[in-house]
Amino acid sequence: MATNGESGQNQTHRHQEVGHKSLLQSDALYQYILETSVYPREPESMKELREVTAKHPWNIMTTSADEGQFLNMLLKLINAKNTMEIGVYTGYSLLATALALPDDGKILAMDINRENYELGLPIIEKAGLAHKIDFREGPALPVLDQMIEDGKFHGTYDFIFVDADKDNYLNYHKRLIDLVKVGGVIGYDNTLWNGSVVAPPTLP
C-alpha cells in the first residue's frame, strides 16, 4: 500500500500530455521525454493548438505532441504531397501534416464535426496553411466509395492518416488500399485501443 507521501509523489510525476496513448509503463518517463525531446521542438502554432485543445471537454481525442512530431517527420521522409486524414477533431495532427507538406501539398480532411475543426482553424490560418486543406464535414465512407467509383483517385495518395471510429477501421482499410499509391503509407491511430483489445470481457 502506498503511503500518503508516495501517493503525492506519484501525482507529481503523472504526465500532463492530453491525448496520451503511450505504452510506456512510467508516466514520469513519458513526461521526461515530452519535456526534453518533444516540447522544445514543437512549432509555436502546434503548441498554441495543443493548449487550445486541452481546454476542450473531449480533449482525450487529440493527437499527442509526440505523435504529431512523428507524423511530421514521417511525411517529410516519404516526401508526401497528396494526403488524406479521416478524423480531424481540432486539427492538431492536421496541422502537423500541413507543416510537413510543400506549399502546393494537399490534405483531404474529413470529420463529422465541423465545430471542433473550427476551434483550430484560426491557428491553421494564422500559420498560413489553410490553403492546403480541403475539409469535408460528414461520414468518410460515402466519400471514399464515391472516390473509388469515380476511378480517377486510384493510387493517388502518398499518405493517409485514420484517427476516427475504431469500429470502422477495417471498412476504411478496404477502401483506402485502392486510394493509396504503391509505396505509400496508411497510418492508423491507437489500433490497440489503449490496451482494451486484451482486456477481460465485461460481465453483463
UniProtKB/TrEMBL annotation:
GO terms for biological process: lignin biosynthetic process; methylation. PROSITE patterns: SAM_OMT_I. Signal peptide: none annotated. It catalyses: (E)-caffeoyl-CoA + S-adenosyl-L-methionine = (E)-feruloyl-CoA + S-adenosyl-L-homocysteine + H(+). Pathway: Aromatic compound metabolism; phenylpropanoid biosynthesis. GO terms for molecular function: caffeoyl-CoA O-methyltransferase activity; metal ion binding. Gene3D superfamilies: Vaccinia Virus protein VP39. Its EC number is 2.1.1.104. It is an enzyme of class 2 (transferase). Pfam families: Methyltransf_3. Keywords: Lignin biosynthesis, Metal-binding, Methyltransferase, S-adenosyl-L-methionine, Transferase. Belongs to the class I-like SAM-binding methyltransferase superfamily. Cation-dependent O-methyltransferase family. This is caffeoyl-CoA O-methyltransferase. It comes from Actinidia rufa. The lineage of its organism: Eukaryota, Viridiplantae, Streptophyta, Embryophyta, Tracheophyta.
